[in-house]
Amino acid sequence: MKSIVKKIAILSMVGMMQIGCDASVIEASPIHSDQAPIQQLDDRHEAERIENERHERAMERRPNESEYEWEERQKRENERHERNLWRIAHAIFN
Question: What residue segments make up the domains of the chain, in order of their start?
Answer without folding.
Answer: 1-32, 34-94
